[in-house]
Write a structure and sequence with these properties.
- By secondary structure, the protein is mostly helical.
- The protein has helices spanning 2-30, 41-47, 50-83, 89-96, 98-101, 104-118, 133-144, and strands spanning 120-121, 124-125.
- β1 (120-121) and β2 (124-125) form a beta hairpin.
- The longest helix is centred in the middle third of the chain and has 34 residues, at 50-83.
- The radius of gyration is 23 Å and the shape is flat.
Length: 148
């Protein structure tokens, strides 16, 4: 019994080191804006820059929109499939788990072809969304489906 307990602690410690060592190294790197000295200068520069707050606000807005759109898509779909169309459950699970099966690079390439002018109707591109936040949000919604 004690042998299993020791191995559990060893595995836990290895896991904690694996997860926290990169965070610690990143923090340590951020403190070295001035060569060979630890300072919070990088943080002072970032937090006094107006552009930082604008970018942070945009990132927060896109994250919230991604969450809201995902919930508006997933909750009614789950309800409808569970109560009204139980035979469709395997198909919905298949589509939901696609981001695990298909690499993100392939998904991004497909979405950029679809929304970036690759989809044409009578030779005219439709749904040209390249370079817009809508495409970014759509990508995050698709990639977050397995976790919803």
């Amino acid at each position: 019994m004690k042998s299993k307990n020791i191995w559990a602690w060893i595995i836990l410690i290895i896991g904690l080191v694996y997860f926290f060592l990169p965070l610690l190294a990143t923090f340590e790197f951020s403190l070295k804006m001035i060569k060979d000295r630890y300072t919070f200068e990088a943080y002072r520069v970032a937090f006094t820059d107006r552009q930082f707050y604008l970018n942070f606000g945009y990132s927060f807005l896109w994250a919230m929109l991604t969450i809201v759109i995902s919930l508006l898509l997933v909750v009614p779909t789950a309800y409808w499939v569970h109560w009204r169309m139980p035979k469709m459950r395997p198909w919905v699970e298949f589509v939901t788990l696609m981001p695990f099966v298909v690499p993100a690079v392939v998904l991004v390439f497909g979405m950029s072809r679809l929304y970036g002018g690759g989809l044409k109707l009578f030779g005219t591109p439709i749904l040209v969304l390249t370079g817009t936040p809508i495409l970014l949000i759509a990508g995050y919604v698709v990639l977050s489906l397995p976790y919803m």
